[in-house]
Structures are given as structure tokens and as C-alpha cells.
Automatic annotation (TrEMBL):
This is Calcium:proton antiporter. The chain crosses the membrane at residues 43-63, 75-98, 110-132, 144-164, 176-195, 222-240, 260-278, 290-316, 328-344, 349-367. Residues 43-197, 227-367 form the Sodium/calcium exchanger membrane region domain. It comes from the Bacteria. It comes from Flaviflagellibacter deserti.
Length: 369
């Protein structure tokens, strides 16, 4: 489902957000809050939750693309990136505030899973899909270099350095260190956004592929899409906590490791960007795909980490940040390979396969550490 200026708004684009809100109200009224109701009712709610939640996500993609067609690049990709990051922050914060499901490592596991999924799974899939159809695709090297450079610094500060500080034992920062890293992360992300949207917009746009991006939409349709996008995102935020309950029950029943919860949450919140990025690659707009994919990884750290820091400090909740040695190796490998992939300005299917192999390794080690 993609936005088109000439087509009428599909029924599911407005029905799914409203259905998601109605489902939340109905499920909460029968006792589905922090735990599933017992018996057949709980099973039925768990089964219905999946299509309702995914319907809201697809509707959010449609409306975000409608607005993006009007705003143009790189602002269009930022709309979806920021929207998905809001979902991520709300979900992590809600789980952190829950006594039943709270985990000091959830933020780390989710952020790491987002980075690995974006830089390897999503980027690899986009490169492979585009390479199979067009043999080679091009993008702007300065823009890709900016993404990777900022990502290396952010990932090191938030996921690696906590293992090597001496003020507090273990993979954690002290309160003062946490505040400092959160502040510099926000400053760095703000500087990147200034470069992307004001000072060097041309780094993130390929003019030949930008033709036709500014489509004609009526202001009424844009206003309606903006409202429905807000409704869809609110519904996703509300249902994500219930989704986390179902995921946690399934993980415990399957005996899977705790990081699996972070992985599933990451995949859920990345669906809107993932769909839009793959669609762009199929249309030979790899630059847009990279803006979505790599931009979401930066937004995850640049916006999610400071927000989670505020929640942790306000609630006096411990925050585990440093990665295990095996995960640190995978992160370093990902950043190294990404540097090589985005250094030439052109990609082919080999780069896609390489990133997908790293992602498959990450998935395997998540379930079999």
C-alpha cells in the first residue's frame, strides 16, 4: 500500500487506525492490560492483536508517504524516521516502567537489534533487491559517509564504552556519565540533522531520481493523512505494550534468551521504514532507501537513548548498556563492512549478500548465544 496523488484514499488506510483504537479499548475493558486474560479470551485477543497492529503499521506507512510526497527529500524520509522513533521510545519506556516485564538491558538489546537490523538486514535487503533488478544502483557518497561516521561515534559511546569506564562496575554508566553521553548524543544528532536538512541537503539527494517526488495533493488530503497518521501512531504505541506482553509470554514458553524480546520489538517498530525502504529500492531510489535505513539507526540512538536516560534517571532504574564481547565483535564488523559498502557510491548484489550474512549470524547468535 503506497500513496498516490491520483488515487482515492484506500478504505484500510483510515479503517485500520480506527480499528486499532477500538481494539485497544475493547481489550482493556476485558482485562488485557499488563497480562493476558485467562482461557479462550486471552488466546483470541493474542491472535487478533497481530493483524490489528500490523494493519495500523501499514496505515502509518501510507499516510507518512503521502505527507512525504508533498514535503520532498530529505524531509520526507525524516517524517517516517521520527514517527517510528516515537514508537520505539514509548514502547521501551512503558516496558521499563512495568514491574512485571521491566528489564535493565531492554534498551540496550533493542537499540543494538535496531542497529543490526537496519545496517545489515534492511540495508542488505534493499541493496540485494535493487541489484537484482537494476544490476547496480548509485547514491551520494558524502551523505552515506556522514551517516556512517555519526553512527560509529554514537554506537561506540552508547554500546561499547560503558564496558570500560571505571566509576561504576559492570556495563553501565554512572548518573553523571549517563547525562553527559545523552547530551553529546543529542548535540551530535542535531548537528547531523542540520547538515542533512539545511547546510548540505545535496549530500542526501540524487537529482535524477528526485523528479516527480513533489506530487500534487489537496490540502484536505494532506490534513486528513496527518490526522490519521497521528491516530495510527498513537494506536501502535498503545498496542505495543500489549504486544510486548504476548511476545514475553511466547519467549518464556519457548525458552528463548532475553535479548529475543528486544529483537522482536526492534523488528516491529522498523516495519514502516523497512517497507518504505524496500519499495524505494525496487523503484531504483537507493538514496531514499539509505536515508530511511541509516537515518533510522541514527534516530534510534540520537533520540531513543536520551529519552530512555531521562526515564531511567527519573525512576531510579538501572540501565545496562555495554554489549557482550560477541555482540561487540558483530557491531565492529557491521560498522567496518558498512564503511566499505558505502565508500564507492555504487552497489551490487554482493554487498547485499555480505550484509545479509552478518544479519543471519546476528539472528543465530541471538537465539543460540
Amino acid at each position: 500500500m503506497s500513496a498516490s496523488p491520483s488515487a482515492k484514499m484506500p478504505i484500510i488506510s483510515w479503517a485500520c487506525p480506527l480499528l486499532a483504537v477500538a481494539f485497544y479499548v475493547a481489550a482493556s475493558s476485558v482485562g488485557f492490560k499488563d497480562a493476558l486474560p485467562p482461557g479462550v479470551t486471552g488466546i483470541a485477543l493474542a491472535l487478533l492483536l497481530m493483524p490489528v497492529l500490523f494493519g495500523a503499521i501499514f496505515a502509518a506507512v501510507y499516510h507518512a508517504e503521502t505527507i512525504a510526497h508533498w514535503s520532498g527529500e530529505p524531509y520526507g524520509t525524516l517524517i517516517l524516521t521520527v514517527a517510528v522513533t516515537v514508537i520505539e521510545v514509548a514502547l521501551i519506556a512503558s516496558v521499563m516502567m512495568s514491574d512485571a516485564n521491566g528489564s535493565p538491558a531492554l534498551a540496550r538489546d533493542t537499540v543494538f537489534a535496531v542497529v543490526m537490523t537496519v545496517c545489515n538486514g534492511l540495508a542488505g535487503l534493499c541493496i540485494l533487491v535493487g541489484g537484482l533488478k537494476y544490476r547496480e544502483q548509485s547514491f551520494r557518497v558524502p551523505g552515506a559517509a556522514a551517516y556512517v561516521t555519526v553512527l560509529i561515534v554514537m554506537a561506540t559511546l552508547t554500546l561499547v564504552l560503558p564496558n570500560y569506564t571505571r566509576e561504576t562496575p559492570g556495563p553501565s554508566y554512572s548518573d553523571s556519565q549517563l547525562i553527559f553521553v545523552a547530551v553529546v548524543t543529542v548535540v551530535l544528532y542535531a548537528a547531523f540533522l542540520y547538515i542533512q536538512t539545511v547546510r548540505h541537503r545535496d549530500y542526501f539527494i540524487i537529482q535524477a531520481g528526485d523528479q516527480g517526488w513533489h506530487e500534487t495533493h489537496s490540502m484536505r488530503q494532506l490534513a486528513l493523512s496527518g490526522l490519521l497518521l497521528l491516530v495510527a501512531l498513537v494506536a501502535i504505541i498503545m498496542l505495543s505494550k500489549k504486544f510486548a506482553v504476548v511476545v514475553e509470554l511466547g519467549r518464556e514458553a519457548a525458552g528463548a534468551p532475553a535479548p529475543v524480546t528486544g529483537l522482536i520489538v526492534a523488528i516491529l517498530i522498523l516495519l514502516p521504514e523497512g517497507i518504505a525502504a524496500v519499495q524505494a529500492a525496487r523503484k531504483d531510489a537507493l538514496q531514499k532507501s539509505l536515508n530511511l535505513a541509516l537515518g533510522s539507526a541514527l534516530a534510534t540512538i540520537g533520540m531513543t537513548f536520551p529519552a530512555v536516560t531521562i526515564v531511567a534517571l527519573a525512576l531510579h532504574t538501572p540501565l545496562t548498556l555495554g554489549l557482550d564481547p560477541s555482540d561487540t565483535v558483530l557491531l565492529a564488523l557491521t560498522l567496518l563492512v558498512s564503511t566499505m559498502t558505502f565508500a564507492t557510491g555504487r552497489t551490487n548484489i554482493l554487498y547485499g549478500f555480505v550484509h545479509l550474512v552478518i544479519f543471519a549470524t546476528f539472528l543465530f547468535l541471538t537465539f543460540q548465544p
